[in-house]
Amino acid sequence: MNAPKKPTAKPKKKYRKTKEELNAEGRERKREKKHRGHKAGSRYEEQASNKQNGGQNASADPRLGSKKPVPLIVDEKHITKPVVEKKQPVVKEKLTPEKELELLESDDRLDSLLARLEDGETVNAEEQKYINTCLDRIDELMSILGIEYADEEEEEEDEDKLDDIMRILKSK
Asked: Is the pTM of this model over 0.70?
C-alpha cells in the first residue's frame, strides 16, 4: 500500500534571461498589444457575412432616411402645397396712454440716442427714424392726455412778459 517513492532530484537553478531575450519578449508583447481591436470597416463586413449566412436581412439598407425618390426636375404634378397651420393672432395688451407714455419716457435706447444727438454726434438713418417715431408718439400721447409741452424759449418768453408787466406796474 505504500507506494515506492521516486527519487527526488535537486531543483534546477532558475535560468536568467539575457538582456536581448528580455528585449525580444517586450517587442513581442508590444506587437500583440498593438493589433487589438476591430479592422477598419468591420461593421459592414459583419452585415455582409450575415447576408450570406442567414439571408434574412438581404433587403435591409444600412443607411438611414427616407427611401422616397426625390424628383430632380420640378413638374406640376410633383408640386405639393405646404400645409399652413392657422396661428391664433397674438393679442397685445392695450396699454393706457399713461402707461405707454411712461414706457416711452423710460426707453433706454431713446435716451441714449437723444444724449448722442445732444453731444453733437451723428446718428444713422435707422436710428433717426426710431427717434422721430418715438417723439411723434410722445407728442400724440401728451395731446391725448392734455399735457402741454413747454419749451425753454416759451418759458423765457413767459418770464419776460411777466417781467415787463412787473415793470409797468412798478412804474405807475
From this structure: no
State how far the Cα of 59 lies from the Cα of 34, in Å rounded to an integer: 37
Q: Dig out the grid coordinates for 53 from the structure.
A: 449566412
Q: Radius of gyration over alpha carbons of the chain, in Å?
A: 47
pLDDT value of position 150: 59
One-letter amino acid identity for 165?
Answer: I
Q: Is the pLDDT of residue 172 over 60?
A: no
Which three cell numbers mark 110?
431713446
pLDDT at res. 21: 94
Instruction: Provide the terminal-to-terminal Cα distance of the chain, rounded to the nearest Å.
Output: 161
Residue 107 near residue 134, CB atoms below 8 Å: yes
| % of the chain surpassing 70 pLDDT | 63
- Could you give the CA distance from residue 115 to residue 94 in angstroms, rounded to a whole number? 30
Specify burial of residue 141 (Cβ count, 10 A radius: 0-12, 13-18, 19+): buried
CA-CA-CA-CA dihedral for 121, 123, 127, 132, to nearest 10? 70
